[in-house]
Specification:
With 443 residues, the chain is mainly α. It has one domain (2-442). It contains 19 helices and no strands.
């Protein structure tokens, strides 16, 4: 049954591509149809389909919706104060504008969720790289690479904790592997599209009174972006299940710093105070709040629908059951890390959640470390890192990060699958090869 459900899911994915590419069906509507089609094809009752999709939609909007709106508001304010134009003018002299975004993405990948990190960095990414696909792809792929391989990002943190791996060893092996994967992602972004110098002007940005201090506004945007990423990284520390960082009231405080409402209040409030941008009628429907909500509404709905599809897939249990089929595989000593990678990758592909994929794959690997020759400090760390690499691979339509990158890059879903999704697969393969090599030379 699990194989049939997985086959149905792949068919639904193919139909979704056809709907959005050939017939130009709007992505939100296509996801609704894909979710319902998969639920019924997987043998779920009508009540189950509606309940699971609705719950997933609710969770997706609750965890990411406000952050997307906050990013849109920051973008509108940055445009209106001249911050975007000032940063864009400075970036024109850079030989490669995607390189700083890649470096920023590697740091931002330590955040509690990669999608939230990408969302809060969207105003700065747009200011540096404009509206072209390359900057969005470079940032998204760098965030993805780092989130699966660098502590204290929750994906790799979960794998390291469950497998009992040594933190210092995981950091020692994870840092070069993450950098290699990020570089691979930068090459994918470079080959996929060209950079662009265009930056649409806001209506307010044409008013000289609002451009009173674009230099100060640019600095404010950079500082606010750094603070928001910092809050998300601190939230990752709250996932550490040990004192003094992860226990009791300390843990709740750290987790609270990265909540969507707090990020919105801190981000929007800070940039308004730092720029002192209070145009007449600016808080009305016609001002930057109204424009930001209009900008973000479609993306928020799409992210919610993607979460609904992911929840439907999780309810079937097909990801875990199909991954369990791989447990009988006995790879040779040189390719032993391919097993934990494959376990996580197949679950990520089928159910969308990187964290759930990492937790489940790590649980499956616990009893296999000894038989596979991975029951030592290096082996446990490499196995955890292989799980992290697999859990970030094959990001597609059931993943919120995919839709944020697709929207930022202004790509059709099919084109984003060819660029971003295949880019995450390539990054995973490169990371796995690097881990295999590191394991061989250190044993």
């Amino acid at each position: 049954m699990s194989l049939q459900q997985a086959a149905c899911f792949l068919v639904v994915l193919a139909v979704f591509i056809a709907l959005t590419q050939r017939w130009r069906v709007q992505s939100f509507l296509a996801l609704i149809l894909a979710g319902a089609g998969f639920g019924y094809a997987a043998g779920m009752a009508t009540s189950q389909v509606g309940k699971a999709f609705g719950l997933g939609f609710q969770q997706g909007v609750a965890t990411l919706g406000l952050i997307v709106v906050a990013g849109a508001m920051l973008t509108e304010i940055a445009d209106a104060t001249g911050a975007s134009a000032r940063i864009r003018a400075a970036a024109r002299g850079w030989h490669r504008r995607s390189l700083p975004l890649t470096l920023i993405g590697v740091i931002a990948g330590l955040a509690s969720t990669p999608a939230a990190a990408f969302a809060v960095l969207s105003p700065l990414r747009r200011a540096i790289g404009g509206e072209a696909p390359r900057p969005a792809l470079a940032l998204g792929l760098a965030v993805s690479a780092s989130h699966g391989l660098l502590l204290p990002a929750p994906v790799i943190l979960a794998a390291v904790t469950i497998l009992g791996a040594d933190w210092s060893t995981a950091l020692l092996y994870g840092l070069p592997t993450a950098l290699v994967a990020a570089i691979a992602g930068a090459f994918v972004a470079r080959s996929g599209s060209a950079e662009d110098d265009t930056l649409p002007a806001s209506t307010e940005a044409m008013d000289g009174e609002t451009l009173h201090a674009p230099g100060r506004a640019a600095l404010a945007l950079i500082l606010v972006s750094a603070v928001l990423v910092g809050l998300l990284v601190v939230q990752s520390l709250g996932d550490i299940a040990s004192e003094p960082l992860g226990g009791g009231s300390n843990r709740e405080f750290l987790l609270g710093l990265g909540r969507p409402l707090i990020l919105m209040l801190v981000g929007v409030g800070a940039i308004l105070l730092l720029t002192w941008h209070w145009p007449h009628g600016g808080l009305t429907e016609e001002g930057w709040p109204g424009r930001a909500i209009a900008r973000a509404a479609g993306l928020v709905l799409t992210v919610g629908a993607a979460a609904g599809l992911s929840k439907l897939a999780q309810e079937t249990g097909m990801a875990e059951m199909n991954a369990e089929r791989l447990l009988a595989w006995q790879p040779g000593p040189a390719l032993v890390l391919a097993l934990p990678f494959a376990l996580a990758a197949i679950m990520k592909l089928l159910q969308g959640s990187s964290l759930a994929a990492a937790i489940t794959a790590a649980g499956m690997m616990m009893e296999l470390l000894g038989p596979l020759g991975l029951d030592d400090a290096t082996g446990r760390a490499c196995a955890a890192l292989a799980i992290g690499a697999g859990a970030m691979a094959a990001s597609h339509i059931n993943d919120g990060l995919f839709w944020l990158v697709t929207d930022a890059a202004r790509l059709r879903p099919g084109a984003s699958l060819a660029c971003f999704s295949l880019g995450t697969v390539l990054q995973g393969a490169v990371a796995l090869a690097a881990l295999i090599l590191l394991r061989l030379v250190t044993v």
